[in-house]
């Protein structure tokens, strides 16, 4: 491993002692740095986004230059830091390699290089391929996007990247998230969720927006500013918030609003659900905003993707909560790029989760009976 030998002596020692206190300490540092750069990229691109910079994918969902450029940046950093790790990323560069994709491609390459070559911040390392002068070629960046093509599976080290989760929220100027996780032998070890548009503290709007949530297996969950300042541990309160409300998708096509209504009625919940795009919902839950996140499928066919739930799941679990499918089974991140047969997602604090699960099962039985009648 020549890159370890090249490490200056003092840094080797620092690196080792830090690693002993937290497994995956270097991974955490790299992941936070990558998400931070991608968050700056996506928020600056939003202000400059023009109509023809968004494509519609085969599944009818939108993808913007921001999604592609952010995946290129994160994947490049991961590849420099951990060259033998696999990546399961949402986007691929096929359309950008076509002649018709040239305009979009040039814009994406410029955005990615601007983000990669930005000044080094606290904790950043030139060995991760970042900093002034570290421009990449078009080919290198398209390959970086395509390195996200790993099929996933039961064994090995792999990262999941969702460069913009909640692209529809991003396009509306509302919530979205830059999401990264490390999965080792199908267990999520690390999750990082960057939310550029989320209030730092909903009780103090003056503190502004821009939060990164981080969780490491067995080491808790925290929230920090985009800059890395003010790291604060997160714990889901064990008593129910006085206003029990569900967190749910804005988009009715992504999860069933009517099913959630029925579950709310069964639980005598009177407050309307809080609708929010992306894994920002998991972040809010982890910091005690909203009592549960319920995501039941709307119809046939859609399989949830691992990059949409791995970071959020470890965040909620490390904040003391529980995440399962609608049968109460843990989400299985070892089945490939999707969650396979895991049907629906329920996330909540320890006691709340059990009550919601029960109500979900009652509502599910009712629904089946109705369908048979
Ligand atoms: N038909 C669908 N059912 C459930 N989720 C979907 C569907 N289509 C896209 N998604 C994905 O749902 C997630 C966002 O859901 P929400 O914001 O409603 O919680 C995103 O990952 C989005 O992809 P994307 O990452 O492309 O935005
Ligand atoms: Mg998408
Ligand atoms: Mg997503
Ligand atoms: Mg996405």
Q: Can you put this structure into words, describing what you see?
A:
The protein is α+β, with helices and mostly antiparallel strands and 373 residues long. The protein contains twelve helices and 14 strands. The chain folds into two domains: 19-233, Fructose-1,6-Bisphosphatase, subunit A, domain 1 (Fructose-1,6-Bisphosphatase, Chain A, domain 1, 2-Layer Sandwich); 246-372, D-Maltodextrin-Binding Protein, domain 2 (3-Layer(aba) Sandwich), CATH 3.40.190.80. A hairpin with a 5-residue loop joins strand 1 and strand 2. Helix 3 (25-48) packs antiparallel against helix 4 and helix 4 packs across helix 6. It is globular, with a radius of gyration of 20 Å. Residues 1-19 have low confidence and may be disordered. Bound molecules: adenosine-2'-5'-diphosphate and magnesium ion (3 copies). One magnesium ion binds at residues 162, 165, 308.
Entry summary:
It is built from twelve helices and 14 strands. It is of the alpha+beta class and 373 residues long. Bound molecules: adenosine-2'-5'-diphosphate and magnesium ion (3 copies).
Key attributes of the depicted protein:
12 helices; binds adenosine-2'-5'-diphosphate; 2 domains; globular; hydrolase; 14 strands; binds magnesium ion; five-stranded mixed β-sheet; Inositol_monoP_superfamily; alpha+beta; seven-stranded mixed β-sheet; metal ion binding; about 375 residues; disordered N terminus; Fructose-1,6-Bisphosphatase, Chain A, domain 1; 3'(2'),5'-bisphosphate nucleotidase; D-Maltodextrin-Binding Protein, domain 2
């Amino acid at each position: 491993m020549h890159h370890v030998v090249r490490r200056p002596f003092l840094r080797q020692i620092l690196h080792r002692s830090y690693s002993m206190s937290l497994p995956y300490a270097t991974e955490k540092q790299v992941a936070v740095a990558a998400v931070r750069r991608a968050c700056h990229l996506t928020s600056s691109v939003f202000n400059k986004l023009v109509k023809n910079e968004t494509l519609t994918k085969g599944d009818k969902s939108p993808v913007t230059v921001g999604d592609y450029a952010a995946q290129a940046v994160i994947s490049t950093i991961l590849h420099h830091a951990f060259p033998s790790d696999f990546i399961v990323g949402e986007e691929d560069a096929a359309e950008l390699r076509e002649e018709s994709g040239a305009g979009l491609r040039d814009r994406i390459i410029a955005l990615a290089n601007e983000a990669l070559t930005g000044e080094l911040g606290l904790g950043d390392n030139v060995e991760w391929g970042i900093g002034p002068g570290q421009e990449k070629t078009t080919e290198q960046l398209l390959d970086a996007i395509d390195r996200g093509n790993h099929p996933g599976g039961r064994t090995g080290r792999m990262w999941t990247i969702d460069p913009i989760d909640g692209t529809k929220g991003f396009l509306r100027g509302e919530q979205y998230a830059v999401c990264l996780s490390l999965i080792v032998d199908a267990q999520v070890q690390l999750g990082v969720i960057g939310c550029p548009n989320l209030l730092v503290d909903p009780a103090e709007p003056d503190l502004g927006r821009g939060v990164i949530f981080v969780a490491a297996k067995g080491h808790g969950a925290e929230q920090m500013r985009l800059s890395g300042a003010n790291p604060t541990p997160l714990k889901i309160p064990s008593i129910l918030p006085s206003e029990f409300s569900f967190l749910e998708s804005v988009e009715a096509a992504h999860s069933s609003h009517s099913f959630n209504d029925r579950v709310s009625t069964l639980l005598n919940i009177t407050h309307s659900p809080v609708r929010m795009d992306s894994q920002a919902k998991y972040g809010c839950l982890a910091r005690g905003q909203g009592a549960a996140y319920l995501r039941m499928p709307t119809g046939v066919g859609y399989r949830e993707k691992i990059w949409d739930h791995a970071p959020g799941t470890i965040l909620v679990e490390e904040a003391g909560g529980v995440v399962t499918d609608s049968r109460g089974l843990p989400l299985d991140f070892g089945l490939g790029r999707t969650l396979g047969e895991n049907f629906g997602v329920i996330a909540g604090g320890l006691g709340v989760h059990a009550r919601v699960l029960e109500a979900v099962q009652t509502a599910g039985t009712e629904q089946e009976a109705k369908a048979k009648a």
